[in-house]
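Could someone model guanosine-5'-triphosphate with this protein?
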Amino acid sequence: MIELEPPRERAILVGAPPKGDAQAVTDEHLEELGRLADTAGAEVVGTTQQRLDRPNPKYYVGEGKAEELRDLAKEQDASLIIFDELLSPAQGRNLEELTGTRIMDRAELILDIFATRARTAEARMQVELAQLQYMLPRLTRMWAHLSRVRGGVGMRGPGETQLETDRRLVGHRISRLREDLGRVATQRATQRKGRVGELRVALVGYTNAGKSSILRALSRTEVFVEDRLFATLDAATRAIDLGEGLSVLLTDTVGFIRKLPHHLVASFRATLEETTEADLLLHVIDASHPSWEEQREVVEDVLGELGLQTRPTVLVFNKMDRLSPEEQEGIRLRVTPGHAPDVLFVSTMEEGGLDPLRDLLRDRVRALRPEVRVAIPATEGAALAEIYRDGEVLEREDVDSVVRLRARIPDATLGRLRSRGVEISAPG
Ligand SMILES: Nc1nc2c(ncn2[C@@H]2O[C@H](COP(=O)(O)OP(=O)(O)OP(=O)(O)O)[C@@H](O)[C@H]2O)c(=O)[nH]1
Ligand SMILES: [Mg+2]
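Reply:
Sure, complex below.
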């Protein structure tokens, strides 16, 4: 039997960048919008740009450009026009009226992708919340769109009352989702144990930088990786064995992107909680991407929104295999000064390409749980138990009812042991 693919929406992309932006940059932004449209299941049938320093309040672009868009949509039989810029509710409504075509902006497109790809119940709730918040000020337009779809010529839009009812319903649903999400987050916080002194590390970065590939390579487990934007929507945590009895908990998170809708960042705060509780962030950067510098700034901005700007962070330049030796040298020279030792150059595609990252993680774990020698009277059962629970015993010798240990013990535990009068000395 022949499986018929559902017809793809035919979309026109519109960019309205500031006059000062370089052409290469604005082209790259539209290309990224095209990848987003593709992920959402639309086919790009036309692209257009207008440079603007100040958006036009009515149509965002100028009136002439808006009319041009209407004609282009007709000519290309497009069912969708997607703006790279965030449109106000009024601009979206005016553009739909003028062009007779459904208008979306980047934020709505991203929300749409998240809605179709979210898998866990929590991710679905978070996306729904963000979508409703986006929709609320735009209900009139959405209604106008619906009544047009229903097709009655001259059919009146919904009366004020209907609109008011809908606003109220959406408002109720939003509060309900907020409550439910709060509950899920609390549950997760209590489930999340993690041992004292275990280093918690989170991968953050621009979408498609290679975060999941790094988690997959380090954990040697199956992790979903795809050459698509937003391959990962749910946080996943794995224990990583670094050898020599050292390990970390590594969390993979949803990627960030330029102009990530504000609501979405807010609703994903709970999922990103694993990140907000991490001791160390690995900011993964696609070194082979022409706009990696801009992507890095975008990620730093989102981290700022999440209140993470001062969290210890290591810059991990990934995909180094895609650069020529000269380009590799160039990037090292440019980035290392000022960032050493918190910058690494890696590849998930090359044998040993992640060794620098493993080494760094091992060093950080060691620093968190320094190796010490301890002598405890065998009668101090509680102190011994504490060491076995929080630390890692490397050697043990029982002589004359004194237990001598060589162990790696977290600082916090060491403090408690000292105050109980346990004798602690440096190894050697
Ligand atoms: N050449 C090369 N490709 C890589 C490397 N690491 C990852 N990739 C590719 O980059 C693409 C994206 O990788 P992912 O690991 O899914 O990226 P991600 O950061 O998790 O992306 P999102 O989940 O969408 O945020 C995939 O096609 C990977 O195979 C690398 O070191 N070198
Ligand atoms: Mg991923």
